[in-house]
Design a protein that fits this description.
By secondary structure, the chain is of the alpha/beta class. The protein has 15 helices and 13 strands. The strands form two sheets. A seven-stranded mixed β-sheet has the order 3-4-5-6-2-1-7. A six-stranded mixed β-sheet has the order 9-10-8-11-12-13, sandwiched between helices. α6 packs antiparallel against α7, α6 runs antiparallel to α14 and α13 runs antiparallel to α14. The longest helix is centred in the middle third of the chain and has 30 residues.
Length: 453
Amino acid sequence: MNDTICAIATSQGIGAISIIRVSGDNAINIVNNIFKGKDLTKVETHTINYGHIIDGDTIIDEVLVSVMKAPRTFTVEDVVEINTHGGIAPTNKVLELLLEKGCRLAEPGEFTKRAFLNGRIDLLEAEAVMDMIDAKTENQRKMAINQIGGKTSSLINELRDDMVQIISNINVNIDYPEYDDVDVITNELLLPKISKLKNKINNILKESENGKIIKDGIKTSIIGKPNVGKSSLLNALLEEEKAIVTDIAGTTRDIVEGQIIVNGILLNIIDTAGIRETEDLIENIGVEKSLKIMKEADLILFMLNNNEELTEDIIKLLEEIKDKKYLILINKNDLESKLDRTKLQIEKDRIIDLSLKNNTGLDSLKDKITEMFKLNELQTKDPTYLSNSRSISVLKRCLNKVNDIEESIKNNLPIDMIELDIKSIWEDLGTINGSTYEEELLDEMFKRFCLGK
């Protein structure tokens, strides 16, 4: 972290401006060597300075240079940002000059990594920076800004503080038993404290289900036999001709994907190959993919044809999805009904009638999805949740350890042994916000970031 790094912080291409970011001990000196204007080493911090980037006597571009001196910067190092005209050639030439003068090209996410290592942000806040960049919905933006602002970190910090209190009381009992004014922590007194901790973790995990929905959206698969209208449904929801629609069975042989927003939440919709027995090798691979996607989906839209009788294989498939979130969409209601609904043995509120030909039923479908996932509630809540798989998996591991501690207390294990398990949970919680971390974890996480961030 002693070297000075640089990278293009804006998207490459033609635009009004491009920004090249420089951070490190020599950031100001290096930029000053290629800048014609005020002496950047003498300007006030957090100022914008007009001038030119030069290569010897040659003017490369007319620029504005922002100078921000440590420690009041994102990386807690000296930071300089060069605003050039937004063409590819001038941007790359400025970057080339910086590298010639002693900068190193930043790795993906290295500016944010330095902010974390220098104590400017914690690990949850660092991850939220990328979430903000990736945000496609207003709910995603709100959740990311809450995480950047430290609201999510406070949930973990509160848990760790509770555990420190428990550990401290146990240690005092063990190390200073002669103190009369200290409450003696016995297994009976410890159990309610552990139960309270367990409830807090359970609540965070429950709320984090909403966080995953906001961040990742709802993985939605359209399942059914050939020619029931799966591709037509995808096109109607997306309001574009994304999937090919014909009367020929087996037209869709691979998955077709798209996204829509329902009540501020992304629906990641997958149109799958029609499920049927076939001797066509390629189509058969598509059918196998469809079944795999059906098992992995958060929501299954199972389509039936109002004009066809139910078959045993469809009834068998419906039995397989009974424990998942699903809706039955009966399409082609403009045609004569041959489908016996009594054979479905499904609650009526799971059935949506559609006529994609007449463009009816889509609003009812969206309303039902909103109801199933309580999307209206997510719209009104302040979204402060854990939202990434890494954090949630760590918290689930902590919950399992808390359950083990409860059993240990009930079995009257020595309290000093229980203390070791409590410390283990405290350390695991620290990996969520980065209070404790492994270098390998950081490297892997920040690889997902874009250059210049």
